[in-house]
Specification:
With 196 residues, this protein is an all-alpha fold. The protein is built from 9 helices and no strands. The N and C termini lie far apart (38 Å).
Length: 196
């Protein structure tokens, strides 16, 4: 799959779940690197001039994953699936806040200098926030009648997984993932075009 072997990551996830604190110490750099790789893939797909900050996305995802010992880690594939879901929630939550603020929510009087400083630290443009919210809504609709296609999009788009990695996570063939990916993209394009 990538740099960290499936066996090593699965073994460390299992040891950590069972309460071994040293496993978390060994797992942290591996998990952090995997999350960074996934976030980097996501950021690479952004338009030129985007302001999405990989480090902020990685740190938030890592904190949510590492802080949740209730996850019953099954294996590396499960880790990828959960990471994709966490990335999706982070991005959608931020897009909702961004869109809310854009429409006057939480309005506060600030100086021009403060506004510029806060705008520079914002990891998502306003149009991108609206686009992500529309995608999330469409994915939720797709999941109602074809959950696997929705998961394929989530893993590929939000998780940054390759076709092969997606097939491993979903435990289906590569051809199935290719078909689902093409069909889901076409459906989402039509759905989001109709909404525009």
């Amino acid at each position: 799959m990538t740099m960290v072997s499936t066996h090593d990551l699965t073994e460390l996830l299992t040891e950590w779940r069972e309460g071994d604190r040293t496993a978390l110490d060994r797992l942290t750099p591996l998990v952090y690197d995997e999350i960074r790789r996934i976030a980097h893939r996501y950021v690479q797909r952004e338009r030129d001039g985007h302001t999405l900050q990989t480090t902020a996305l990685v740190n938030e995802a890592y904190l949510r994953l590492a802080g949740n010992q209730q996850i019953n880690w099954q294996n590396r594939a499960h880790f990828f699936a959960v990471t994709a879901r966490v990335m999706r929630h982070i991005l959608i939550d931020y897009a909702r806040r961004r869109n809310y603020v854009k429409h006057g929510g939480e309005a506060q009087r600030v100086s021009f200098t403060e506004a510029l400083a806060s705008e520079e630290s914002v990891p998502m443009s306003k149009p991108r926030a609206v686009e992500l919210l529309a995608l999330d809504e469409a994915l939720n609709e797709l999941a109602k009648f074809d959950p696997r296609k929705s998961r394929v999009v989530e893993l590929r788009y939000f998780g940054g997984l390759s076709l092969e990695e997606t097939a491993e996570v979903l435990e289906v063939s590569l051809m199935t993932v290719r078909r689902d990916w093409r069909a889901a993209k076409a459906w989402l394009f039509r759905r989001m075009k109709d909404e525009a």
